Amino acid sequence: MKARLLIGIPMTIATIGLLVADHHFASAWGIWALYVLGITLGMKEFVRLQQSGGAKLSIVPMCGVTMLLCLAHVMELWKRVPLGPAGASLPETLLVLVMVASMCVEVIRGEPERFRSLSIQFLGFFYIWVLGSYSMKIRALPAIGEGAFAWYIIVGKWTDAAAYFTGRAIGRHKLIPKVSPGKTIEGAIGGLVFGCAGGLIVWYLTPLRTELPLQVFIPLSLVCQVAGQFGDLVESLMKRSVQAKDSSHMLPGLGGVLDVIDCLLLSAPVTYYGLLLAIRYKDHF
Questions:
Q1: How many CB atoms lie within 10 A of CB 219?
Q2: Cystine design at 43: which of 66, 75, 188, 274 (Cβ 3.0–4.6 Å)?
Q3: In angstroms, rounded to a whole number, what is the distance separating the alpha carbons of residues 265 and 228?
Q4: Domain ranges of the chain
Q5: Residue 196 CA to chain centroid, in angstroms?
């Protein structure tokens, strides 16, 4: 608990500072840099976990490709136009070509037992990069990007932290013990309540207040929070599949980078598409 607070509090202050700087200086470079670093380190931990389970994956090529995908994505966000061939998305083009090349290499090797590792490699790119890339799509939304990104980060991590502390304080009934023995129903409910409160604060302080009425915002917030809690459980299931407690020991008390961003990965596409739908149909409520 003490180690968790000693690491978690400075990280929280630094994140809020980054979000405030993003708003006041109207520049997303700090967030983009954090995106590249976080997703690349997340991929490294994913590969390490799968290696411990017997998968034949290589850290350098997978992390190298992940970093290239992130940088290509950042370049497109900066230029505000697709940079791939004939107006296609550059990162998506790179990902498809890498996947095609990987399949061709495995065919040439002719080792059927490596097919499982190839499947896990594709899962890694989808789980870490494809899902993670939606976080930057949230930031790039017109008019509400800054506020929406702040809401997505703060609500996701506030829900995660509140679920942990509420569960430790009053948790009695296990949520899904086969996946995560420590998570409780009381913790999940506490996470939703406190996370929604944090979301309302962000809603009030940002342009979200003028773009999304409360009767739209609150249900959207709850859906995104549930997705984030499932994201935490997905990583727990993955760790149990290879008999690991944490994705790494980089952050004492918290585990690894993947343990920090797991709730944000699954909630990113849900948040992005939820915001698009909410903005489009807000006048119907």
A1: 13
A2: 66
A3: 8
A4: 2-284
A5: 18
